[in-house]
Amino acid sequence: MRANRVAASGLTRRFLLKCAAVIPAVSLGRRAFAAQPSTDISSQDFLQLSQFLVGRAHLDEIVAGRALSGLTLNDPNFPGKASALWAALRAENVADMTHFDEFSARHPEMRATSITIISAWYLGYCGKYDGHAVPAVGHPVDNAQYVAYAAALMYAPTIDATVIPSYSRGRTNYWFYPPKTIARD
Amino acid sequence: MTQHYDADVIIVGSGASGSNAAFELARKGKSVIILESGVWIPRWKIVENFRSSPRKGNHNDPYPNQPWAPSSFSPGYIENTGSFEYLPGMLRLVGGTTWHWAAATWRYIPNDMKLKTLYGVGRDWPVSYDTLEPYYGRAEYNLGVCGSDSEDQSGQMGGLFPPRSTPYPIPPEAETYYFQRLKARLSPSGFNFLHEPNARTNQPWDGRPGCSGNNNCMPVCPIGAMYSGDVHARHTEKAGGKVITDATVFKIEKGEGNKIAAVHYRTSKHEEVRLTARAFILAANGLEIPKLMLMSDIGNSSDQVGRNLMDHTGIGLQFLADEPLWPGRGQVQQGGIFNWRDGAFRREHAAIKHALTNIVPNRAIAERLLSQGVVGPELDRQIRHMAARWVDFSTTFEMLPIPTNRIQPSTTRRDALGIPTMVVNYDTDDYIAKGAAVARSQFAEIVKIMNGTVIEDNTGWQNRDHIMGTTIMGDDPKDSVVNHECRSWDHDNLFLATTGVIPASGVVNPTLTAIAFAIRIADILEKEV
After folding, report:
1. Cα–Cα separations (whole angstroms), residue B73 to B177, B206, B218
2. What's the predicted TM-score (pTM) here?
3. pLDDT (tens digit, 9 = 90+) per residue, A45-61?
4. Are A159 and A151 in contact (CB under 8 A)?
5. Which family does it belong to (chain B) (predicted)?
């Protein structure tokens, strides 16, 4: 059940090289400037932007790398949009996501980018998948990209009550009883 | 002159039906060969494929899909010409589609087998419940089925029904809290709830562990508590039989006296092999078998091969109840409402099964909330609130045999081995449309009793992956493909082990019946080869 969390002590050279190999369009080591939106976004900025959008102090860097790769593969303009979003959020000092509706009312063009990033973290995939097509090896059928499974944030709110499918925490017939929180749910 | 054979019996397809027939023959000392187009891979690889897939809702996605053994979801493999896009999720690997079947193992009831006589619609089966009963018991034993020895499975709330000569090998699993609460609140209004017999053992059985509620029966049980056909493929090998993978049968060869003489298979390297046997069992599912028969021009003097395609084409309902029920604890389905499994109404409209789905609903909920732009702390709060209250019904209907609902080999498309793909024509009719209208009024009542908030109550027709009728069984060679033994009318050493023989679909999952017939075929062949 544990996410493949790595130490939050900065990006490793191997990780950066891996990103570079996957997404040549993403510049590495160059920060976006708040006043001058860039067409790129650094891995570190994407991680921080993600942390803000999903309201988590810590997120897995490996998962962040997959999310950035997938979103960029599906939309070459994504790094620029994400960079502009992060710049605007910082420039306007948006405190947290309870103010998102006001922010996106001021920047309607940034709403979709925000939801795309949040979706990747919550659902564990980005793009759209075809529910009735299966790729043969090397023959993609859609633009769905894997981001995470056990670390997908959609499971966090219920993790004490239900399993992440394919994992188990109970014994046979544990399901006869409701979760302990039933009276409060 | 002595005729030498490669095997006593050759079986095409290694799924639950083929593997059970093979095992029963092998343990009686017959030489058997199973030919499988796909590969044999271990469970853990499928589980890893699932966990790293971006297509979690696509039940075929974690499975092999090679150009020479395409799954039914391989783009273009099934071309539809009818009003309904018929696309069941069929697999090509050792063990077949029972890798992701959720393991419902119902027996048909006697009235299902006399549909024409009792209700004037569809067809009768050429075999009685009493004849099939002992084979149902053996199939339940092989699969480690758990079920109730006291419930009336016709849904009419009488005593134990249908009659059984042997108890279920394993008692039912505990009812989920979700099931208990829905039953407690809906039963007083006359909704009859039944436990669903299932091949998901809840105690050690035949090397399999008891279910521990991983909630992933579809697309793959990670621990093998749920039965899949590879169990008996393995047992067949231990009993001396042989399983050959990467062997796609593309031709069935007729010999003297209208007997089948040989099958021809092709490997992924395009090598061709001819194998002979005293008898042959086709067990490659209700679409692949008629395709192969039509390609080979065999067994079709009735012109019924590939016709009468039936499924339990269905509809769905999702709503939020007014209390936390917490679906997603335990297996993905457990039973449902069966009042309309049988009754005089079948003269007018399809039988109805309302099955309760018990899948962890977080993905469906999060996708929905995000599409509505819900973010921040409210997103987490609503995920929990809705996940606790999510109710999901998967409703299915009885389909009648319609000759124009059919599967044929494509005349324009071929797979990587040069073998034709499929063309399917499938239309729904008034019989299930009337059934669906009745079911929707029942949906409204259910939602009202649960003070529900409807999420979706107008899904349109849905696939249910229960292929029947395409090699229809009957008592007249002029209008059926096989007789009551599942023996081809045209070739007396050819048998079909498939749900495709089922002539009246009823409303229950048909796999146990195909396996019961497969075991009966093995008993018949034991005396003949």
Report:
1. 35, 32, 15
2. 0.94
3. 999 999 999 999 999 99
4. no
5. Belongs to the GMC oxidoreductase family.
Q: Phi then psi for B514, rounded to 5 degrees?
A: -65, -40
Q: Which pLDDT value is given to residue A138? A: 78
DSSP B285: -
Calpha distance B315→B440 (Å, rounded)? 9
- List the catalytic residue out of B232, B349, B354, B466: B466
Cα→Cα distances A51→A82, B172, B237, B376, Å: 13, 46, 54, 11
Complex ipTM value: 0.96
pLDDT of residue A169: 85
**Minimal-distance CA residue of chain B relative to A146:** B54
Ranges under pLDDT 50 in chain A: 1-35
Range list of β-strands (E), A27-140: 125-126
B228, B376, B515 from B521: Cα distances, Å: 20, 60, 10
Residue ranges in B187-260 assigned as alpha helix (H):
230-238
Q: How many CB pairs under 8 A join A and B?
A: 181
B299/B94 Cα distance (integer angstroms): 26
pLDDT of residue A36: 52
For residue A118, give both structure tokens: 């949040």
**Residue B62: which of B87, B88, B36, B41 has the closest Cα?**
B41
**Which residues between 122 and 161 in chain A have a beta carbon less than 8 angstroms from any beta carbon of chain B?**
122-127, 129-137, 141-142, 144-147, 149-150, 154-158, 161
Residue B238: φ, ψ to 5°: -65, -30
pLDDT tens-digit profile of B167-176? 999 999 999 9
User: For B64-196, where are the E strands, in sequence order?
Assistant: 78-80, 193-195
Instruction: List the single best residue of B375, B417, B463 to mutate versus A (max A Cβ within 10 A).
Output: B375
How far CA B457 is from CA of B88, B174, B394, B436, B452, in Å, comes to 22, 29, 11, 11, 12
Residue burial B282-292, b: 16+ Cβ < 10 Å; e: rest: bbbbbbbbbbb
Beta-bridged to residue A142, according to DSSP, are none
Phi, psi of A175 (to 5 degrees): -70, -5
